[in-house]
Design a protein that fits this description.
About 35% of the residues lie in helices and about 25% in strands. It is globular. It folds into 2 domains: about 300 residues, Aminopeptidase (3-Layer(aba) Sandwich), CATH 3.40.630; about 110 residues, Alpha-Beta Plaits (2-Layer Sandwich), CATH 3.30.70.360. It contains 12 helices and 19 strands. Strands 4, 5, 6, 8, 9, 10, 17, 18 and 19 form a 9-stranded mixed sheet that branches. The chain is of the alpha+beta class and about 425 residues long. Bound molecules: (2S)-amino(hydroxy)ethanoic acid and manganese (II) ion (2 copies).
Length: about 425
């Protein structure tokens, strides 16, 4: 059977794996409609926050697709959903693939979804090829990869890997303005996911291997004219929340010498973060202040309280910490000079992950067989794989995305690149499931 993409199907151990690219393109398009569609001149903007009606409709649609493929379905207490193709030796540890379908506000339609629908199509392609895997192959939809709703990313895979305390997770409050009163416990229960979060945990060795397909979310593959990336390491993210408390007042009557302007102090902190990050001279050290909440937020009122949410990442956690130490020294002097109170709260500080050399080698072999020159590379975006690495050997497959753009409506990956990545994924899963 020839693949619809017109490119030769991948061969693995005499199986002919053909990807139905037309169907994948249509399914990605359908999945992108489960959103509050914002008019955007730059492509299909997607907003799909975890446990919202859009997310729940998308999950239901996906479960229908999986059911029609004869996969068994299990949902855990936080909504991680496991679609399993049972192998001929079901007691063996399974081979897993998966990603997320939640999307940050005004995002694109490929981040995460390529890994979920790619995993489903990889299973379908293996079934069509006549493969009879020894090990079960499991597609996993992971809950809340994005930090939008509860302020910390990868909640589902953190709970699977025991990287977050279940009680702390259940007690997380809404991180979006106006949602501070809701907790994860309330929201997940209302969405139908009940039971203690401690039951989400999976043991070391639960999976034989974990392989995630994802868009690169960076420009390197396209810039170097390469068609596929094999991730060898995932950078370590950390999140901090700074609260600056000054004295508010009338924008006209409160004279400058009497001011304790919280936003001006916050501005100095933001620039301190940027300058100390640049001062490392390391391209792998990145920092962002993506949220700045100003209270009371009136044009004619001096800001009395500001909350900054900081996202800082590095392949080297010690270097990441050195940036924060330098920022803290500045924070002390900013607080003193401006007579404001500045407090810091840790959201998360994670270690990087190294991908399994064996799994990297398996994908190298598949790519050689397909005549694909693959690039070994670091992922600076974090992914659920970062936490699945705590319980399983992992690897990621990257496909190019136009201009390296992601987390924007104009995020784009071509049907040919998606089909190629899916075919390599299918061949890899087929090989691993016969180990
Ligand atoms: O922020 C990240 O790296 C991921 O896309 N959530
Ligand atoms: Mn993302
Ligand atoms: Mn993602």
């Amino acid at each position: 059977m020839q693949t619809q993409t017109g490119t030769p199907p991948s061969r693995t151990d005499s199986l002919e794996i053909a990807i139905d690219s037309t169907r994948m393109t249509s399914e990605l398009q359908t999945l992108s409609t489960f959103t509050s569609i914002e008019p955007s001149s730059k492509g299909t903007a997607v907003t799909r926050i975890v446990f919202t009606p859009d997310d729940m409709r998308a999950r239901a649609w996906l479960k229908d697709l999986a059911r029609s493929e004869g996969l068994t379905i299990r949902e855990d207490a936080v909504g991680n959903t496991f679609f399993r193709w049972v192998g001929t030796e079901p007691d063996l540890s399974a081979v897993a693939t998966g990603s997320h379908i939640d999307a940050i506000p005004h995002a694109g339609m490929y981040d995460g979804t390529v890994g979920v629908l790619g995993g489903l199509e990889a299973i379908r392609a293996l079934k069509r090829s006549g493969a009879r895997p020894r090990r079960s192959i499991e597609l996993v939809l992971l809950t809340s990869e994005e930090p939008t709703r509860f302020g910390i990313g990868c909640l589902g895979s953190r709970l699977i890997s025991g990287t977050i305390n279940p009680d702390r997770a259940d007690g997380l409050h809404g991180a979006q303005r106006g949602s501070e009163d809701e907790t994860l416990a309330q929201v997940r229960t209302a969405a139908g996911f009940k039971g203690p979060l401690s039951t989400v945990r999976l043991p070391q060795g639960h999976y034989h291997a974990w392989v995630e397909l994802h868009i690169e979310q960076g420009p390197l593959l396209e810039r170097e004219g390469l068609l596929l990336g094999i991730v060898t390491a995932i950078a370590a993210p950390a999140g901090y929340r700074f609260t600056i408390e000054g004295i508010g007042g009338h924008a006209g009557a409160l004279l400058m010498p009497d001011r304790r302007d919280a936003l001006c102090a916050a501005a100095e902190i933001i620039l301190s973060i940027e300058s100390h990050t640049l001062a490392t001279g390391a391209i792998d050290t990145v920092a962002t202040v993506g949220i700045c909440d100003v209270y009371p937020g009136a044009v004619n009122s001096v800001p009395s309280r500001v909350t900054l949410q900081v996202d800082i990442r590095d392949t080297d956690p010690a270097r990441r910490e050195s940036v924060m130490h330098a920022v803290r020294r500045d924070v002390v002097s900013i607080a003193t000079c401006r007579e404001v109170r500045i407090s810091e709260a840790l959201v998360n500080a994670d270690n990087p992950a190294t991908c399994s050399p064996h799994l990297v080698g398996v994908i190298d072999d598949v790519c050689r067989g397909d005549g694909i020159t693959a690039k070994h590379m670091v992922s600076r975006a974090y992914h659920d794989s970062l936490f699945m690495a705590r319980i399983s050997p992992i690897v990621m497959i990257f496909i190019p995305c136009r201009g390296g753009v992601s987390h924007r409506p104009d995020e784009y990956a071509s049907p040919a690149d998606i089909a190629r990545g899916t075919r390599v994924l299918a061949a890899t899963l087929g090989k691993l499931a016969s180990e």
